[in-house]
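CORE FACILITY INTAKE
Project code: CF-77B
Contact: R.S. (postdoc)
Sample description: multi-component assembly, three entities in total
Requested service: structural model of the whole complex
Turnaround: standard
Below are the sequence entries exactly as provided by the requester. Do not edit them.
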Amino acid sequence: MHTTALQETSTFEAANSAPVLSLNGISKSFPGVRALNDVALSLYPGQVTALIGENGAGKSTLVKIMTGIYQPDAGEIVIGDDAVSLPTAHAAFGHGITAIHQETVLFDELSVAENIFLGHAPRNRFGLIDWKQMRANAREVLDTMGAGHIDAEARLRDLGIANKHLVAVARAMSIDARIVIMDEPTASLSAKEIEELFQLIEFLKSDGKAILFISHKFEEIYRIADRYTVFRDGEMVGEGRLAGTSQSEIVKLMVGRAVDHIFPKRTPDIGEPVLRIDGLSHPTEFDAISFELRRGEILGFYGLVGAGRSEVMQAIAGLTRTSAGTMRLEDAPLEPKSAADAIRSGIVYVPEERGRQGVVIGLPIFQNVSLPSLSRTSKSGILRLAEEFALARQYTERLDLRAASLSQDVGTLSGGNQQKVVIAKWLATRPRVIILDEPTKGIDIGSKAAVHGFMAELVAEGLSVIMVSSELPEIIGMSDRIAVMREGRMVEIFDNKDLHPETLVRAAAGIAA
Amino acid sequence: MTTTDVATNRRVPDRLDKPLTSALLSWEMLLVLVAVAIFVTNSLASPYFLNAWSLSDLTFNFVEKGLIALAMALLIISGEIDLSVAAIIALASTMMGMALQAGADTPVLVLIGLGVGLACGAFNGALVTRLGLPSIVVTIGTMSLFRGIAYIILGDQAYRGYPSSFAFFGQGYVWWVISLEIVLFAVMAVIFWFLLHRTSFGRTVFVIGNNPVAAAFSGVRVERVKFILFCLTGLMAGVASILLTSRLGSTRPSIAFGYELEVVTMVVLGGVAILGGSGSIIGVVLAALIMGLVTFGLGLLNVPGIVMSIFTGSLLIVVIALPILWRRFREARGG
Amino acid sequence: MKSLTKYREIWLAAAIALLVAAVAIRFPAFATPSRLLTVFNDYTILIILALGQMTVILTRSIDLSMAANLAFTGMVIAMTNAAYPAIPIPMLIIMAMAIGSLLGAFNGILVWKLDIPPIVVTLGTLTVFRGATFVVSGGAWVNADAMSAAFIQLQRGVFLGLPILSWFAIAAIAAFYLFLARTPLGRSIYAAGVNPTASVYAGIDVGRIKFVAFVISGMVSGLCGYLWVSRYVIASTEVANGYELQIVAACVIGGISIAGGIGSVAGAVLGALFLGVIGSALPVINVSPFWQLAISGAAIILAVVLNARGEKRQGRIILRQAEAA
């Protein structure tokens, strides 16, 4: 094989060649939010550019502009030598731009072949879709990519996630895309599947495609990307060649300051065990999970996305049923059959998906806060608004909520303030154990600090906290002990003393030390 | 400067005083205006309209449907729908007729009417909440099933000869021109208003309609609340069946044909979001009144029922389209 | 499980065969080819309407106004024929399809441009169209005396051993198959129903696709308006009253998912034939036709329950992933 030689040539060419796509001075605002402010991005043929930034930095808005879903308020998009406009997804498609999103861009009920060729299917001389030809072409594309094991006639729904990604890539190949956008393609893949994906990216590179690779994982970025572009709060704050740029330089660009001092200092006062989980199992999601949570402790749960952490927490909070194992809360057996049961016994779960599982958009702030405590604020089933307002005031003020009034629709608040409402709602139930699932995901730095400060206050008051987080700085900065899960099983529980982040990453990824 | 800013920010008020214009522009206010306008038009168009007995007759036009609309409003706010209500009326009425043939007395007839309504509602509710099926398809199915059973039993026959004590429900007057029907409607309206707007059960109905997942995560028993709402809707259809059967004095399997559409129209006209999450009982009561006024007014002018349905159908679309167009217009002007 | 959903049409065909066989045990004449062709011919209109309804349901919508559209168009066509008997029948058919499409486009525009839920739009237009039928006819009927001989005779004619009416069904089945399976627009209809978000990324305008689907359901309603009045030789306001539910029933029984994106031409046809066989068998086995409504109601519920089981999507399974890796 001459792949290496080919790659070297293409890299050599790329270094000297002009970008295939440039975005200049792109700005985009939504009501109340400036998502992108005068950003620039260039993609080069045969090169992988990593787009790096925290949640909410504007990456997904940029992807939507590049794929014709959103229109920029200002700025130009240059493909080759021409400024173009991308008024529709179809136009972006026509310019050879294609996106491989996490899971949303394919059609579960349609066949593999059709997923690849939807919109540009081969036709016969009557203008009708030629299914036989389409299947043959699909097999050809899949074979070229080394994905010949995928049946072109299979329904997409019956494929695993890794194979679905391959189909998405095949689609990109089939339209002869020049620009391939990969939006967190490894989010739910196993190590082996990620390796296969990377081989595919090498293949696309050697084919001269320009690739935009969006990921949170530094090891992947360093493994596959040639260039980087960093976004922070809707602005482009740095770009360049990855070779010779250290990880800490990029982290500094991402957060705009050193990370460690935003976590509150605290002197843990840890008491006896409050919650004991022993051998908790679920038929398909997790197996033999055991741990103890002590009074006044923050127990961190680390792992890759999809390691089963949220599923375990939801079982403890009564949202899913378990198949085996026991739970005890302060010596009393805990067998929640619903969220209501768990709340009554003093365990609350602050869910990860704020918009879907947390806030009730359309209802005012005070009604959101009082929701799980309605039995306390009402009398024989009759609402008492004064009590509801008092409760909402008590907890939202503690969290420093910024709002015009407590009767404001919670949907009009920023993400950070919505999260404060969600946390206030759970605290108002006066829990003994509070489980926070990715509590600072997608919220601004200020709200983040408020949430962290508040967690420190809670444990100081004797509450026990479980924090599920995929952010290393957060998990190390906040936790007393850290449990690591991988693929539905508990790997190890570490004491957070001189713990090296690498230890956690290795444990989570299953790499031997 | 900074410290006072923080201090004022921390004092989040309970509510802001609404500007007068927004209170005046509320949907309910609009409905009041429409009702008044139709009332005036009716009085001008027909000399027979402004008369205590006419106005009393008018109420019979909307009370039965209005009673169902009260419960349907809660069901639609929770994000579900029941299209089988008219079929429930037919089945309940048929069952009452059968009991009558078997020699049942008025109290038994009433119990059967309520019981059949409740049972049908529970059947719908079980299919939707236990099996997780879409309510629109389920109730299209039960709509055929319930009325189909009525047809199997009755064919092209009819039950007649209800006792005079039974006739009181649909034809009786409590005092002067005040019918039992309108009193019942008023009482039920107050009960449903209280249930929806003043109890924690009502609050959970709104929560479920806006975000059933977050509701479940917050400890709301979503399926149970929905099941209760289906039962309530069935029960109110049972009540309507008693009133209608008593008023007509007979049962045919085609009784109340097409009522489901008018009930849904009433609810939507009353300002309830068809996709769930918002609405008010006052709006629904006003909408019931408006539809009663229109039907009765056109009736006085000898406009046939089928032509009135053009009005009902257009009204349904227009009342949903108007807020959308209005919002677009404001956005276009604002942007 | 997979094979069950994959071969839903085969299961349905088997159920129909079983039904025919059960009736034939007592009444052998029921299973003769000529008798079965009669059933097919009798249910031509339901088959065609179910195909139109399926197109709409595939896009996650529903059209409850089809029967009312049929009644209105049928009335207009019958009145036109009565007033101008010289207009040739093919011209009338084109006219029927055009009027039907126009009414369908009205539904479609409200769904597309105003984002009003389809069920609300078509519940509304259902009454408006039927009311309009009354208005144009003044409540009068158009019956055989007023219709031209050609108008009544055309579809009773026989071509290649089959009644012309049956040929309409065969043509519709072929046209819908080619359209839905073999044209880009047809595939877009499936795509828009399977995954609206992904459709946007693939350059499909989901709103416009819904509009197209409503125009198609309107067009077949119009066509069936002509077929209905000329077959039953009557046009009145009451024509096909309540028939919209039969159409939805045929689709649901045929395995077309109300959640969109799943369904086939064969399914819709078999769903309609299932109702057809039941409807034709009832008088044969001496059961009152009043049973038909309840049976189709029960069939809808049963079909929804079975479909829901087949469609239950698998969640992400963490432990299985672990084992596979």
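Facility notes:
- DSSP finds 16 helices and four strands in chain C.
- Chain C has one domain: 2-324.
Invoice: internal transfer
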